[in-house]
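Q: Structure tokens for this one, please.
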Amino acid sequence: MITSMTGFGQACAEIEGVVYTVEIRSVNNRYFKAALRLPDIAAFLEGDIEKLTRESIQRGTLNYSLRMKNVSGQALFDIDENTLKAYVSRLRRLVPGDASECTIDLAAMLGLPGIVQPIIPDAEHTERMKNTILKLSSEALEQLKQSRLEEGQALAEDLLNHCRKMRDDLEVIRQRKDAVVREYHEKLRKRVEELLSQAQLRIDNDLLAREVAIYADRSDINEEITRLDSHVTQFESCCKKGDAVGRRLDFITQEMLREANTIASKASDAVIAQCVIDIKCAIDRIKEQVQNVE
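A: Here is the predicted structure, written as tokens:
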């Protein structure tokens, strides 16, 4: 079954006094794009995480967020005392007179560049943190894929419902197309007889037959009906597949619209015209939904 490009996945775990929370959201995009938000202490994993997401998702924009909260009381960040002292020393030199009367807000100074630095973990701790984050990322991705699959099932049901409506209208057109030629023949014959009766002339049946044959050839929509029916069959088949078929469905939809427009231009009949309008409305709804398919 098809997969939607919209979904959400989350995974949490507490390891060594640190709570890790991974959240992944995905929205529509013609291509794959990953937007990652990582704490500075885990920034070195950006390449690994992007590779992991690319292996799982083919289309869509992924918003990946990792949060780390220390619940053990051990700080994840350190204060660069040398840099802080350098800031304070320079500020004191700027104050005229007795610098001891100068008040410095240390809390505000912590926001200056270079003061607060993430603690650099050792190799063993880094490896454990890496394994934890990648494991949680995989779990969140599985949830995301399941979410996208569930929404894809709803999308598939809606798309197949529109296909069934198109088939109903196509069947009406198929049954109506031969009657259109017969009605044209009869109308043309009656009109010609009316005109010739006034001039007391006889109708040339061969000429009338040629005219009807020309009209029948110009208004022949058998090929268009067959192609449109084939496109609908292809579309239904793609909806039942589990691959990333969004681009293919989009292309098939364009071809369906092309055939519907050709039928509308060739068949000068009110019933067929109404059916074509219904088909084009269904195609338009399908085009909207297909933009959500991976």
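A few notes: The beta strands are 7-15, 18-27, 32-37, 60-70, 77-79, 116-118. The mean pLDDT is 81.
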